[in-house]
Amino acid sequence: MVDLRLTRAAGNLAQRAYTLQPVRSRAVRAAIWAGVWVCSGVVGAAAMYAYLQHADALASHCTSAPVTADGAQTELERSRLALEQESTARAAVQKTADVATAEVSRLNAQLMFLRGQGQKRR
Predict the structure, then answer these.
(1) Distance linking the first and last C-alpha atoms of the chain
(2) Contacts for 22 with CB less than 8 Å, ≥ 6 apart
(3) How do residues 18-43 score in pLDDT, each as one tens digit?
(4) By three-state DSSP, how is residue 68 classified?
């Protein structure tokens, strides 16, 4: 047999209007969001602090040591000496190249002369 009490209860449940209700109250949800915002702010502040410490460390590595007047004069003399040595080396290489070019021209002229002499005999 059919139990009429169950069908009556089922009919009553089927005809009710149901609405979704939050599991947590508004105060708890607001507290959770506030906690998330506070945690995000703390994490952001910590990241910014670490970045600034790292940037300061890099800046201290990048700065050059102060140069004294004696140090600048010594560096200038060293640069002048290096420039003079380079100029001398370039002049020596240019002189060698000029001598080699003159030798090539002389040998080329001799070769042309000898080729001309060989063609006259034939």
Answers:
(1) 140
(2) 29
(3) 777 778 888 999 999 999 999 999 99
(4) coil
